């Protein structure tokens, strides 16, 4: 075997080992023990996973039900951003109530902490602090405005002085954009300040327990994974530790989710390497069977997330949350990649079932078929004073796109339904109108995370000439879009 072939084989074996399910879940368990150690040092602070990776490291019995959405891409060098599509303002009330926060994430080989913790969160803290100062004429804080700390703090040895300075120059512009947006900032008694803890931290910092001594709210960023050479380190207990094992779980998890991991943690960790894949297949298949059964036959009460600015006339949920014991108060747009409608959806005049293919084909379908079907259906039922719920499989992307289009077309700036005058708005719609209505959604649904492609298609749908909009419209399916639906 030549040198090149040998190196290729070695690399292939390392890659196989890094994707090994047994190695991954045991690595996650080791990192989760460190996270629990930090949590026990700050028991009064809520523990929040940064999605998606952070959920693998936070015990569902101790973690808050809230989730954070700080993306590493908003902290990538040269691409720094305070993203108004991910403002994370829902965390502020929690921070004020508990005088701080524990935020959990991890990163793969090559870094001590993810960019989300080293740069995105510091940007967020500094922008929030500056926006509060800019938007509060009478500072209701325990110190005067001159002492209100708006500095940017980044972890030494992780972010260079040059990069720090480049980020700092952009903070005021981002703060101005936040103040000018639809979002309403709560009154903060103290500014936010990021603090970092990693497995290499030897002494955990202490913070004042009383308001008299407090000077800031600590946002404690926990980087869960130990930094190891080449991202892998062998353990005497029989597994290879993989740094950042919770990342890119689609590549290794076989469908296992963080919630399933924590529910069955002890069983998973005590199963040998050869039997583990079979166990995971059983767990995930039983979960899927249960989900399908409850989706079709649920009599549970229906509680979608209402968009508050329009008084709950539109709401969002996942397809799993849809109850088929709906009364006439609700109409539902049901979006799924499933080829056939569930039996319970058939002959339901208030439910519009639309298949949404995945990938590039799905985005073309979204513009030329999904939106042209969904929008008239929504308008019809809003006119009949029904509430309309839009459900997709995640409740974060496609459903958000349809809700955004409907909000822009059918509701004025004050959130009132335009009724029969909605088409008069078409000639004056702008990207700012769309952006504002996206902020309405995110305020009520912080988990909303529409892709750039989905937002682009919504813009095309709303801002293109009518002949383009409806030239490809297909007839609405019998499940609920007929004009005479009552």
Order of strands, main sheet, comes to: 7-8-11-9-10
Largest sheet: 5 strands, mixed
What's the helix-strand series?
A: HHEHEHHHEEEEHHHEEEEHEHHHH
Please provide the count of β strands. Answer: 11
> Class by helix and strand content?
alpha/beta
Q: Categorize the overall geometry.
A: globular
Rg over CA atoms, rounded to whole Å, is 25 Å
Mean pLDDT: 85
User: What is the number of helices?
Assistant: 14
* Spatial gap, N to C terminus: 74 Å
Question: How do the helices and strands line up, and which of them pair or pack?
Answer:
Elements: H1 3-18, H2 21-41, E1 47-49, H3 90-98, E2 101-105, H4 115-135, H5 161-168, H6 171-180, E3 192-197, E4 217-223, E5 232-234, E6 240-242, H7 258-263, H8 265-269, H9 276-297, E7 305-306, E8 314-318, E9 330-336, E10 351-355, H10 359-383, E11 387-392, H11 398-410, H12 431-444, H13 452-463, H14 466-470
Helix pairs in contact: 4-6, 10-11, 10-13, 11-12, 11-13
Task: Describe the protein.
The protein has 486 residues and is α/β, with parallel strands linked by helices. The chain has 14 helices and eleven strands. The chain has helices at residues 3-18, 21-41, 90-98, 115-135, 161-168, 171-180, 258-263, 265-269, 276-297, 359-383, 398-410, 431-444, 452-463, 466-470, and strands spanning 47-49, 101-105, 192-197, 217-223, 232-234, 240-242, 305-306, 314-318, 330-336, 351-355, 387-392. The strands form three sheets. Strands 7-8-11-9-10 form a five-stranded mixed sheet, with helices on one face. The chain has a four-stranded parallel sheet with strand order 1-2-4-3, with helices on both faces. A two-stranded antiparallel sheet has the order 5-6. Helix 4 packs across helix 6 (171-180) and helix 10 crosses helix 11 (398-410). It is globular and about 65 Å long. The model is unreliable at 289-300 and 472-486 (pLDDT under 50).
